[in-house]
Amino acid sequence: MKHAALRSLACALLLTIGSAHAEPPFAKERVEWNQPQKPFHVIGNIYYVGMAGVSAFLIVTPKGDILTDGGLPESAPLIEKNIQALGVKLSDVKILLNSHAHFDHSGGLAKLKADTGAQFIASTGDRPFLESGHIPYGPSSQIDTTPVHVDRAVKDGDAISLDGVTLTAHVLPGHTKGCTSWTMPLSDAGVTHKAMFFCSITVGGNSIAGKLAYPTIVSDYRASFARLKKMDADIFLAPHGEQFGMAGKLARMKPGAPNPFIDAGELPRLVARMEAAFDKDLARQQAGGAAYVPR
Ligand SMILES: [Zn+2]
Asked: What is the whole-number distance in angstroms between the Cα of residue 122 and the centre of ligand 1?
C-alpha cells in the first residue's frame, strides 16, 4: 500500500512537472495572430476591424452594421475597440456572421454577441460546433470556445439583408462542414464590385486519409474547389491577412492611387495554391503522414 501510494504520488508529480513544461496548443500562433491592428477602410462600406493576423470586417449601413467573424477567444476586446475607434457604437452592430467554427474565428463570438446584442447568423453545418463550443475534428478540437447561440441558421444560397446591403452565403465544406464564404455587391466611386468574405479551403490539419475527420471530407473539398473555380470576386477578403496579402495592400493604399484591394486575380490564385497544397497533403497523409504537424 505504502509503495503504491508513493508511486502514484511520484506519477502525479511527474505529470505536474510535465504539463508545466508542455506548451499549450497554438500558444505561439495565438500571440502572433492577436497583435493589435489599427482599423482601416477597405473599400465602399467595408472596414477592417480585426487583428494583425486574424480578420474581422465591419460592413456599415445607415441602419446598423454587420460584423463578420469573432477572432480568437482573446480577440473580442480588440475588435470592440476597433469598432468604437471608427465611431461606431457596439449596439449599432445588428448582425454577426461567422466564416467557420474554428477557435481563431469563432472564439470571440459569444462575447461580441453579448456586448452588441446582434443577431448571430451561421451555417447549419457549423451550428452544432458553435453552439457546443467544440468541433470534434482537426486541430481546433484542442481548444474549446464559449458556446454561442445561432439565432438564424443558413444554407447554401441563402441571403441576408440590412438596409439595402445583401450578403449571400456560399457553403463550401471541407475546412469545416459548414465553411461559409459570403459575397456582397458594392459600389465604390461609381463602379460596381463584388466582395467575397472567404471562409477557407486549406487542409488545416484535418485528417483527409485513413480515419477521416468526417466521412465526406475529401469529396466535399473536391466539390468546393470545383465551385470556387467558377466563382468570381474582385475584392477578395479572407480570415487571415496573409491569405489576401493584407499588409502589402494596406502599405500600397495611397490617396489618388487605385485601391490595391481591388484584384480579381486574388481568388483564382489562392484557390489554385490551396488545391495544389491539398493534393500534396493528401498524398502525404495517404503515405502515413500525421494529419496535423504542429509548427
Ligand atoms: Zn480554420
From this structure: 15
Distance 75 CA to ligand 1 centre (A): 15
**Ligand 1 centroid from CA 190, angstroms:** 35
- Three-state SS across 100-119? CCCHHHHCCHHHHHHHHCCE
46 alpha carbon – ligand 1 mean position (Å): 22
Digit-coded pLDDT (tens) for 50-93 = 999 999 999 999 999 999 999 999 999 999 999 999 999 999 99
| Ligand 1 midpoint to CA 208 (Å) | 15
Which of 95, 92, 31, 43 is CA-nearest to residue 69? 95
Per the confidence metrics, is the pTM higher than 0.85? yes
Instruction: Give the separation between CA 246 and CA 45, rounded to whole angstroms.
Output: 17
Q: Report how far ligand 1's centroid is from the alpha carbon of 226 (Å).
A: 20
Write the pLDDT tens digit of every residue in 120-132: 999 999 999 999 9
Grid coordinates representing 107 are 472564439
Domains of the chain: 30-286 (3.60.15.10)
